[in-house]
DNA sequence: AATATATTGTAGCCTGTGCTACATTCTAGG
DNA sequence: CCTAGAATGTAGCACAGGCTACAATATATT
């Protein structure tokens, strides 16, 4: 049984737009991690951790700046704006919740970390809330 | 605590390559659905259901053909090769499993369908197996 | 201080996936 | 049969996100 045409189109549309934001989220979270663990967020480090060339990282950082999530000056490290920091916090919380849920349903920990990286960008607020409830219930 | 640099790069790499295959999977699954429900898979229908222009759909269909997943002749509908059909079957099974798992942990059904569209492309075989075990255990 | 190395930034290319506009072909109604 | 409208296909554009190669700057070593 095929779903309604418009519904289906909307589903795919949502998945596409989620994907469009995924890159920004990954960068912001990583930068926040780097800044948080006592160091700076330097383009080369960011590039290495994301597994891309430094040129690619710099272009993406430029996009972060365009979108008001980060700042940087020539030959200085990258910093987050308040908006960027907020986004990072939300993304990190979501990431944890996704990993925890995967583990709770029996996914091996290492695998949960791997899969969560791709999954997290597509989990809605409603689903996150459900995850939290499920984990809470299970904990008792 | 930051993860190991190489591990982290590998995670992102995996997520990127999963994303690269996602579009093909969506098309193949949809085409199989259309063919399966008694009709043809026409480019215009495919485009409408995916929420993209017909030109975009046709270009993606060309890619499916390049990759040996589909066939079509000028002004005829699209068909799947055996490889395409196999992929569609795997994708559909995975989709169902993801939706069922989301529902099982308390995500509202409609939301589960929405989120699954994006999530499914990032769920590894190991995680799928865990989902199946979890659902089986819960069913009893 | 001078130079070698590492880091940062720029330029230009490719591919993928959107789009609109236009051309072609099919198909149905008159 | 022939013409109007739908469907299909093509061309060309934009943007994102990869890459390599090169240029510029900063840092470290001698």
UniProtKB/TrEMBL annotation, chains A, B:
Annotated GO CC locations: cytoplasm
Alphabetized PROSITE patterns for the sequence: HTH_DTXR
Annotated ranges, domain HTH dtxR-type: 24-81
Keyword vocabulary terms for this entry: Activator, Cytoplasm, DNA-binding, Manganese, Repressor, Transcription, Transcription regulation
Spans traversing the lipid bilayer: none
UniProt key word Metal-binding: no
Record-given protein name: Transcriptional regulator MntR
Family affiliation: Belongs to the DtxR/MntR family.
UniProt-listed InterPro entries: DtxR_MntR_Metal-Reg (IPR050536), Fe_dep_repressor (IPR001367), Fe_dep_repressor_sf (IPR036421), HTH_DTXR (IPR022687), Iron_dep_repressor (IPR022689), WH-like_DNA-bd_sf (IPR036388), WH_DNA-bd_sf (IPR036390)
Main subcellular location of this protein, as a coarse class: cytoplasm
Gene Ontology MF, one: DNA binding
Pfam families in alphabetical order: Fe_dep_repr_C, Fe_dep_repress
Organism of provenance: Methylocapsa palsarum
Quaternary structure (record): Homodimer.
């Amino acid at each position: 049984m095929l779903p309604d045409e418009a519904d289906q189109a909307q589903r795919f549309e949502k998945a596409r737009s989620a994907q469009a934001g995924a890159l920004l989220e990954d960068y912001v979270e990583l930068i926040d991690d780097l800044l948080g663990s006592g160091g700076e967020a330097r383009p080369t480090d960011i590039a290495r951790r994301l597994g891309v060339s430094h040129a690619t990282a710099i272009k993406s950082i430029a996009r972060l700046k365009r979108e008001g999530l980060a700042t940087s000056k020539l030959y200085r490290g990258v910093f987050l704006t308040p908006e960027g920091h907020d986004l990072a916090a939300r993304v990190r919380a979501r990431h944890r919740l996704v990993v925890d849920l995967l583990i709770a349903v029996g996914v091996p920990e290492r695998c949960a970390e791997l899969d969560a990286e791709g999954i997290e960008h597509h989990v809605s607020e409603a689903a996150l809330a459900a995850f939290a409830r499920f984990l809470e219930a299970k904990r008792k």
